Amino acid sequence: MTRRISEKEVEKFVESFYNYLKQEKGISEETASAHAHQIRFFALHYLIGYEEKSLLEVTGSDIEDYLGNWYIRKVFGSGRSDVRYILVAFKKFYKFLHERGNLEEEELNDILSACDNPQRYIRRFDAYMELDPESETWEGDFRNWFMGEYDEKEIEVNYKQPFELNAQISRAFSAGDLKLSNTSVLNNFRTFLNYISEHNSMKLTAANSFISRKHIFSLNKAMSSPEKFKSTANQPDSGTVHLFYNLSKTLNLFVVSAKNTLEITPRMDTFKLLSPKEQFVVLFDAMWNETSWVKFLPPDSGGRPEYVQEERMNIASALSECEVDEKYPFVEWIKEFCRERGNAEDELDIIMMATNFVYSVFDERIAPALKVFGLLDFEYKKDRDKYLVNRGRGIEWFTITQFGKKIFKTLMG
After folding, report:
1. 130 phi and psi angles, rounded to 5 deg
2. What is the residue range of 372's domain?
3. Which of 80, 123, 230, 297 is 20 to 30 A from 66 via CA?
């Protein structure tokens, strides 16, 4: 019979665990406190408040439900970057209980097995974040997510299967148009692929499974137009590398292993065999249609990137009407775009709609990506404040290229 554990008992366990980490394991006070906090939160909010269990009654199934379901839905501000820190705390805590004789070997192994593959919980976070509450299929989509297996294996991918070419994008331009364009995407993406191939099995960051700072700076230096960012920059601070990382994941050119390493796949060789035009089509389709635009932003950015992405056909239509090489004030053009959409009742509504574009994924990530693809050009305001500089925002004006006009015309539908 399950016995309710008191908060006082929880605190005794947590304090004992904290002292064990500091005194016996030599872990810093800051790290020991962080691990202890994770166990306290788990015990008080999930075990006592939800499951009515004690810390000594936890099984692997409880870990899976907590991190693959309850924590995602119930904890405000939770994110995929929490996963690895929580699992490390669980492993240390239950090994501590085992050493103290409170846990049998078989019970410990069951819990450790549930902690072995962080990627399955990260996939659960990603899948939940992609659910759309405003969708007509919301209830069914949520039910499918909720009933999903926590220990699901990676979807089988046939890495030798040919890439599907988006016919709409492909007919928009010729190989000759591509040669005459100002795109830098193919050469720089090739540089990116060669680098991660040379550093295959590189260890990724614990928080988000991103490329580490050392490699980010090396990759940035190898690009045709290196970006300027501070010495503490992480992957999302490099718009180009972050873009290429996410496109590569969408195309299954590499996978993140259970050991949190980057592992290239045979699909990379298949991609390299494509013609330049085919590579461009595959990459642009992955950026414009296949990858959720929220992934191009730094984690926990907020805003409404999903709304902006839903408007991409209308965006393409409006951009196709721009004159080639004519400078358009970015903010004013966005306001006019929102006004012509016909959804705003007054100027305040227009400003609020425009904010979704000006201070969002479009200004920060999609416009720079379109520049990399050679579809447009732009310049930032010279008097941008530090925040806008750090976020890659503050476009003053933009122009459409001849190559971009051809593609945007086709994307109208």
Report:
1. -85, -5
2. 292-413
3. 297
Q: pLDDT (tens digit, 9 = 90+) per residue, 258-295?
A: 788 999 999 999 999 999 999 999 999 999 999 888 88
Is 364 found in the same domain as 306? yes
| Residue 124 contacts residue 68 (beta carbons within 8 Å) | yes
Q: Please report how the helices 7-19 and 83-99 are oriented relative to each other, as an axis angle in degrees rounded to 10.
A: 90
Residue with tokens 């805590």: 93
User: Is the separation of the CB atoms in 45 and 90 below 8 Å?
Assistant: no
Does a structural domain hold residue 19? Answer: yes
- CA 376 from chain center: how many Å? 25
- The kind and range of the H/E element at 381 are none
Token pair 């309710």 in the structure block, residue: 4
What's the confidence (pLDDT) of residue 297? 87
pTM: 0.72
List, for residues 344-391, the tens digit of each pLDDT value: 556 666 666 666 666 678 888 999 999 999 999 999 888 887 766 666
Our CA angle for 113, 18, 64, nearest 5°, is 25
Q: pLDDT tens across 75-121, in order?
A: 877 777 788 889 999 999 999 999 999 999 999 999 999 998 888 88
In the DSSP assignment, the letter for residue 344 is -
| Residue 2, C-beta contacts closer than 8 angstroms, at least 6 positions apart | 52, 53, 54, 57
